[in-house]
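Ligand: 5'-deoxyadenosine. Inputs:
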Amino acid sequence: MDTRENILVTEDEMIKQDAFLQMVAEKNPDANKKYIINTFGCQMNENDSEKLSGMLEAMGYMRTQTIEEADLILYNTCCVRENAELKVYGHLGSLKALKNRKPGLIIAVSGCMMQQKDVVDVITKKYRHVDLVFGTHNLYKFPELLYMTLNSEKPVAVVSDSDGYIAEGMPIKRDHGVKAWTTIMYGCNNFCSYCIVPYVRGRERSRKLSDIINEARVLGHQGYKEITLLGQNVNSYGLDLKDGSNFALLLRSLEDLEGIERIRFMTSHPKDLTDELILAMKECKKVCEHLHLPIQAGSNRILSEMNRRYTREQYFQLVDRIRSQIPEISLTTDIITGYPGETEEDFAQTLDLIEKVRFDYVYTFLYSKRTGTPAAKRQDQIPEDVKKKRFGALLELQDSIGRQINEELAGKSVEILVEGISKNSFSMMTGRTRTNKIVNFKGKTDLTGQLVNVIIDNTGTWSLEGTLVH
Ligand code: 5AD
Ligand code: SF4
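Predicted complex:
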């Protein structure tokens, strides 16, 4: 039975996890153990890692940046593309020698990859130096699982084939002091034919509107200035709650929170982007003028085979509707090159769509065969060199479009939220425009967390440079 009651983790279960958390902390009274988390994949995984860090710090572990120093090494994995999986196997293999030198070391692996039974089998059989394996559905049980691991000679592996639960009130250690991520829903119902996510993350489950608002209110009081609402398809947020909640209502409900200056969200499936939502984006002053709207391919034949449930014409109309309501909106998208059966003609349609829409940025991916998805069974897989050639052509076209769009900002004044010192140039501060463009400028570090105006002097494809307006 799939009712809300058995989706929410009970208060008793959370109290139990808190007890395990205390028990692990008691084993480590000096709080001198060190941990490192290596995160792969999307922002939802980053947000999960922040929760894992929060739990570890509550259990007396301190973060370190060096693997050799760590008493606990955790890989939070992604399985959307094969590359990310191969990297994890590579890392795990290289840890064997370290584990031999340091037997007390705990090696743990979590995340989407661990929701696949065959992967867990490989890890438990071939990587015997791994101590703990758990999937995304068991995240909230980490204190209990770590306690079991610390008290057992044998590896602990838990895979859950249920849809997973929603756990509220977990400790969290956020990576950033100015902007925060909030996962508003878990799972996906869309079953795009290439994508593994619905199989590993389960069906859509939304957090209660009041829980999200409370979290955002606390973030505002803690000094966070920007919130990004996360979900595989935020446009269908709340529909499973059947209490009238929806994404437009959520945006409107967050509008008056004290301290929060900017609200962002991702990802939006084009088939579910309603006029009601466009209006809410337009009317909510804190909602930033940026929309990530994955198209995936430009040919109607491929879109249909991908089970995306829109045509290129419908996508064009949607972009027109958004731009007519919010003219300054910046648009970004995801595109896959080399989907099975993609012909040169299909690909030419993708290039044509990119030229017509003129996205601010395009995230391009080589199609990756994911076992268990319908597309993986197809016989007409595209050779790697063809996928790569198309990938290159797409990048080249988009680079010139992105550069031209950014050039139009030269000499203009933009409002940016200062995030801190630039990672690429320590003499510069960095921040983002409401349209999500990175702007570097010379300024004092105490501007971090403030909204400032900057006049754009130099523009590039990736980032902009400007002068602070005093
Ligand atoms: N191969 C390549 N890219 C993929 N994505 C999802 N599944 C695959 C796959 N099998 C891309 C889609 C999605 C983004 C998060 O990852 O473009 O929007
Ligand atoms: Fe994957 Fe499609 Fe769901 Fe996005 S909407 S997570 S691409 S199945």
